[in-house]
Write a structure and sequence with these properties.
The protein is an alpha/beta fold. 28% of the residues lie in helices and 32% in strands. The protein folds into three domains: 117 residues, D-Maltodextrin-Binding Protein, domain 2 (3-Layer(aba) Sandwich); 87 residues, Periplasmic binding protein-like II (D-Maltodextrin-Binding Protein, domain 2, 3-Layer(aba) Sandwich); 67 residues, Alpha-Beta Plaits. It has eight helices and 15 strands. The two termini are 34 Å apart. It binds adenosine-5'-triphosphate and zinc ion.
Length: 286
Amino acid sequence: MAELLRLAIQKSGRLFEGTQALLKECDIEFSAGKSSLKSRAFDFPVEFYFLRDDDIPTYVADGVADAGIVGLNALKESGAEVTIADPLGFGRCRLSLAVPKGVAYTEVASLAGKRIATSHPRILRDFLKDKGVGAHIHELAGSVEIAPSIGLAEAVCDLVSTGSTLASNGLIEVETVLLSEAVLITRKNLPTAQQGILDQLIFRARAVRKARHNKYIMLNAPTDALDRIIALIPGATSPSIMPLAKKGWSSLHSVVSDHDFWEVIGSLKAAGAEGILVLPIEKMIA
Ligand code: ATP
Ligand code: ZN
């Protein structure tokens, strides 16, 4: 049987969509029935294991799976000994301390002696220890944000992305404990064949990630304005210039980061650029 990389991903939940989207852009597709535990990718030597996110780090550390995609928060909380192969740029959130509106809070020491509800006791314990603050950690599996309103705790340490869940529970974020995103993890001492597959996966994921942040830009300009325009959008290596049928005019093709594009668009027009087209890039390999 050909070698496979066993890749553990979240069965359903906040990471599933981002994981599936990234894999699809990497041209790695699979079908996942609601009840299936495993699935083979079409056209790529990966077998997916569909698991609860909390279990992924341990499965990888134990070698039941070769690699996995999991939030950095879940990885740190597990304490599992694995290697982080690559950050993946989705599932961004932060683990934060929050207190009820109106409660006096100036610094972490304000929480001394208080009860803090969290589903991340290990990370919180390390954080409090580091700050030299003694508080009672009240571990909850979920719905951490309601703990203060039912009198279970005076503060929470919970995952936040927009902050709207905290706000609707009358809580105010006061401290960031950890910044998190989805990461690709691997077990230690991957056999050569699996390492080779993993390297291909990382190569594809990086090409996709880079492309997401860049756009292909095409514009027309008087040939004598090109130097000024190139200075504004230098491109990945050097822009391509093609003559237009209209005498004294050229077409310029280049790559621009989506951030830079909005910064320079005004200057491009002022420099004489016309007919500017901006297109998405599917993959970008340096
Ligand atoms: P499972 O059934 O797999 O245990 P879960 O309920 O523990 O799922 P989800 O709520 O799906 O987990 O969150 C999975 C991961 O998504 C989190 O560990 C975190 O890394 C990430 N995440 C991103 N934004 C948020 C958010 N606003 N709240 C919670 N998790 C978030
Ligand atoms: Zn979970």
